[in-house]
Design a protein that fits this description.
The chain is α+β, with helices and mostly antiparallel strands and about 110 residues long. Helix content is about 40%, strand content about 25%. It has a five-stranded antiparallel sheet with strand order 4-3-2-1-5.
């Protein structure tokens, strides 16, 4: 096998891996999608990781505005009570409120 043939195979493998990654990432985004304007809160795991004095923790509940197109996997949320905007939080840090939690807000 000559150098050009080896280079073609390496390029093919890299392209195949990239396509597989893109497909898997798209499936992940579809499965974990939070609808726009959903009422969300931090997951318990994320709350334990944050500094207790963090500005974002002053709000317990947020309105999910959506994913940032240029930064996949990150989102913009607005504090439900304060109206403060928080940008570039990982979508995986949030979960939608269930019906019981939503009833408590009303």
């Amino acid at each position: 096998m000559d150098t050009i043939e080896t280079f073609k195979w390496v390029c093919f493998v890299i392209l195949a891996l990239f396509i597989m990654y893109a497909v898997i990432y798209d499936i992940y985004r579809i499965v974990t999608k939070i609808p726009q304007y959903a009422i969300v809160k931090f997951t318990d795991e994320r709350v334990s990781e944050l500094d207790k004095d963090a500005e974002v923790l002053k709000d317990k509940v947020f309105v999910f505005l959506g994913e940032i197109p240029d930064i996949p996997g990150h989102c913009i949320v607005v504090g439900y009570d304060s109206g403060k905007i928080f940008i570039v939080e990982h979508i995986s840090y949030f979960r939608e409120l269930n019906s019981e939690e939503l009833d408590k807000l009303a």
